[in-house]
Design goal:
It contains eleven helices and seven strands. With 280 residues, it is of the alpha/beta class. It has a seven-stranded parallel sheet with strand order 3-2-1-4-5-6-7, sandwiched between helices. It is globular. Belongs to the short-chain dehydrogenases/reductases (SDR) family.
C-alpha cells in the first residue's frame, strides 16, 4: 500500500477518541457502536436499556472498549449525570451520535398508528421528546464539556429519516386499510425527523467556529426481525430504486465517514442513504 493510500485510510481511524451513541442497545444503534469501536474509539452507550446485544458482548470480550450508562436522554439530570460519569472514567467525548428515538412500527396498534384526528397527545409528546428534546439535551452537554476541556475537533451526527425529508407514502400501508384497519404512518415521527434536520443546520452554524461539525444521516427503512409483515416489505420495496430494504449494516460506513476526519470539511449537511427512496 502506497503512502497516499495510507494517509486516506488514516483519516477513518478513531483511535484515542471517545464517542457516545444514544440508543446504542437498539438495532441500528448497536451497529453504530460496533463500527466506531472497530475504528478504535472508546464507545459509551447512553440508553435506558442495559442488556447488551450478543455481538457487542463478543466485541467486549475481545478487548474493545464499550461502556454502558443508564441514561434517560429526555431528562436533564440523567443526561448530566451520564456525562459526569463518562468524563470521570475515560475523558471528554468528541463524537456524539443522537440516535435514540421512539417510532411506531407498521405492526403496532391503531392507538399509536391511527388517523390524525385520533392521534394522542401523549404519543406525540413521547415521540417528539425522545428525538428533539433528547438531541437538544445531549448536544448541549456535549458542547459544555467540549469547551471545558479545550478540544479542537468534534463531530455530532443526528439520525434523521427519509420521512424527515419527504412525506410518508401512505399508499405503502394501504394493505392494512384494505383489511379494515384504520392505519396511517403517524405524524409525530415525520415532524421529529424533520426537526432533527433543522436542528442539525442550526447547530452546525453555532458549532463551526468551535471546531464541532454537525451533520445528519438520513437512512431508509431497515429489513430486520421486527415482525414486519410481508405485505409491508413488498410495498416498500416497490417504492425503492434498489428494490430492497436496507440491512442494519448498510449505514455503518456512512457513520464512520461522518464521525471521522474523512469528512473534515463537511458540516450542516444531510447524508442520504435510502436506496433511492427520496430521489423520485
Amino acid at each position: 500500500m502506497n503512502t497516499q493510500n495510507v494517509q486516506i485510510f488514516t483519516k477513518f481511524d478513531l483511535t484515542g477518541r471517545t464517542a457516545i451513541v444514544t440508543g446504542g442497545m437498539g438495532l441500528l444503534g448497536a451497529e453504530y457502536v460496533k463500527t466506531l469501536a472497530l475504528a478504535g474509539a472508546i464507545v459509551a452507550i447512553f440508553d435506558i436499556q442495559s442488556k447488551f446485544p450478543q455481538h457487542l458482548l463478543a466485541m467486549i470480550e475481545k478487548g474493545h472498549d464499550i461502556k454502558s450508562f443508564m441514561v434517560d436522554i429526555t431528562n436533564q439530570g440523567s443526561v448530566g449525570q451520564g456525562f459526569d460519569e463518562l468524563v470521570e472514567s475515560v475523558g471528554t467525548p468528541t463524537i456524539l451520535i443522537n440516535n435514540a428515538g421512539l417510532d411506531s412500527h407498521p405492526h403496532t396498534s391503531i392507538s399509536q398508528n391511527g388517523p390524525f384526528g385520533t392521534y394522542s397527545e401523549e404519543t406525540w409528546d413521547a415521540v417528539i421528546d425522545s428525538h428533539l428534546k433528547g438531541a437538544f439535551l445531549m448536544s448541549r452537554e456535549f458542547f459544555r464539556w467540549f469547551m471545558l476541556s479545550h478540544q479542537s475537533r468534534g463531530s455530532i451526527i443526528n439520525i434523521s429519516s427519509t420521512y424527515g425529508l419527504v412525506s410518508p407514502d401512505q399508499s405503502v400501508y394501504e394493505y392494512r386499510r384494505k383489511r379494515g384497519e384504520d392505519f396511517f404512518k403517524p405524524v409525530a415521527y415525520s415532524v421529529a425527523k424533520a426537526g432533527m434536520i433543522g436542528f442539525t443546520k442550526w447547530l452546525a452554524e453555532y458549532g463551526g467556529p468551535m471546531g464541532i461539525r454537525v451533520n445528519a444521516l438520513v437512512p431508509g427503512g431497515v429489513l430486520a426481525n421486527q415482525g414486519l409483515e410481508q405485505e409491508f416489505i413488498e410495498q416498500y420495496v416497490k417504492r425503492t430504486m434498489l428494490k430492497r430494504m436496507a440491512l442494519p449494516s448498510d449505514y455503518n460506513e456512512a457513520i464512520l465517514f461522518l464521525a471521522s476526519d474523512a469528512s473534515a470539511y463537511m458540516t450542516g449537511a444531510n447524508l442520504v442513504v435510502d436506496g433511492g427512496w427520496t430521489a423520485r
